[in-house]
Amino acid sequence: MKKVFVSLLFLCTLSIPVFSQPLAEPDDFLNSDFHKHRREQVRMRLPANSVTVFFANPVRNRANDVDYVYHQDPDFYYLTGYREPHSMLLIFSEEQHDANGDVYDEILFAQPRNPRAEMWTGRRLGVKGVEEKLGFSKVLVNKAFHEYDIEFAEFDKVLFYDFKNDVRNTHAEGDLYELIAWFKVKSGYPDDDSSLLAIEPKKQNLDTRTLDVIMKDLRGIKMPEEIDLIRKAVNISAIGQVEVMKAMKPGMSEREIQGIHEFVYKKYEAEYEGYPSIVGAGHNGCILHYIENNKPDIKNDELILMDLGAEYHGYTADVTRTIPVAGRFSPEQKQIYDLVFKAQEAAIQACKPGITFQELGQIARDIINSGLAELGLITDPGQNHMYYPHGLSHHIGLDVHDKGNYEALEQNMVITVEPGIYVPEGSKCDEKWWGIAVRIEDDVLITKDGFELLSDMAPRKSDEIEALMAQSSPLDDFELPDLDN
């Protein structure tokens, strides 16, 4: 009886559209005009008689029949607003004509509607939805690319990002695996592993370099709509730091601290974290990309380094604070912390159009090197050491390490400023410094004449941090049942 019911239900899903009502979602996503304008900017930068091809991100498997939450390729989202997999975008430098005489200069191949699949994995826009919501005039279902009449060999340049060959075959017609395979055949891409029709490679017009230059130029300079979303992501992240400062107590775990940050993100409707959260207490803070966050009992005399960022509507923040678990810095911790702050503040104050990333980085490095020499961790400021092993700045936006150029700062760039000092146990210095790890990271918008510090909602000065940590937290009385009974 149960099997008959399921079969009848399946037949109903094939004949009756499901989820016909629009999906209720926030109204502050980037609109279709933004994405259209970005596509136009790509088109303006294309070489004559060329086409550029973008593919959606693959679906990533977590384990067995469970996939990770899907996250669109940032370039693809930037240009389309489309958040579904198994799709591709073509942008042409000149107008094209199809068999019906219609003129177009871009085309999106999208997932088709599928009532049964949508019952399991959620609504799809389909061709009509992409046209109406995303503003594309020419949209085809993904499987139509197989028969799509295009001669890539007739273009002087075919621009695309080279393949990583890490896409699973879902065996669904028109999936990303097939889209890539069909593109390789149609374009003459040399692929020894292809089981499809073997043709003579036409490599001379296949360009896997120029597209990245175009996208770095575009994405490195933020539009006003993007700055609004980045600002919100940064504010959310800074508030997370503030709430943790108030809630911090010895005996908490790294994972618990991570959870408070990420709860704040979700409270503000941030969809994701922009990158794996880094919460390192004591010596763990010396591991730059420490993401295990599994220390169960944070000690009273430790610092905890918290490098986290909320991702809001595709745009991520990147904010780091280092605080004393006990609420007050020890003398050694304060000396290192204040030195990092001094270096960061000098670099932030120097931010303006025209200064180079290299010059900005050298300002912070010179201050840190001089300070380390004064404290006796190194013998002189010119000594090579590993106490500050990373750079000072990177772009943020759709990626935490966003695309952009790394020469001179320009208006409407959004960058991090993040000096740090890390003294692992066993370092060749006085043991009193061992285990101290400090990074202070803020997000900075470059303005016409200077900068705007976006992440100033979270205190940076050591005395301000101590004052905030003395305040009560809404979580002070939050207790869960003991599971050890």
How would you describe what is shown here?
With 485 residues, the chain is α+β, with helices and mostly antiparallel strands. The chain has twelve helices and 19 strands. The protein has two domains: 2-217, 3-Layer(aba) Sandwich (Creatine Amidinohydrolase, Chain A, domain 1), CATH 3.40.350; 222-469, Creatine Amidinohydrolase (Alpha-Beta Complex). Helices cover 32% and strands 16% of the residues. Helix 2 (32-45) packs across helix 3 (74-80) and helix 10 (331-349) packs antiparallel against helix 11. Mean pLDDT is 93; it is low at 1-14 and 194-201.
Query: By CATH's scheme, which homologous superfamily of the largest domain applies?
Result: Creatinase/methionine aminopeptidase superfamily
CATH level-1 class of the largest domain: Alpha Beta
Q: Estimate percent helicity.
A: 25-40%
In the CATH scheme, what's the topology name of the largest domain? Creatine Amidinohydrolase
Oligomer class: single chain
The main β sheet shows up as: 6 strands, mixed
Helix count from the secondary structure assignment: 12
CATH architecture of the largest domain: Alpha-Beta Complex
Task: Kindly state the number of beta strands.
Answer: 19
Strands in their spatial order, largest beta sheet: 6-5-4-1-7-8
N- to C-terminal separation? 44 Å
What is the C-alpha radius of gyration, as a whole number of Å?
Answer: 26 Å
Q: What is the overall pLDDT average? A: 93
Strand content: 15-25%
How many structural domains?
Answer: 2
Low-pLDDT parts are: 1-14, 194-201
Helix/strand/pairing category: alpha+beta
Shape field = globular
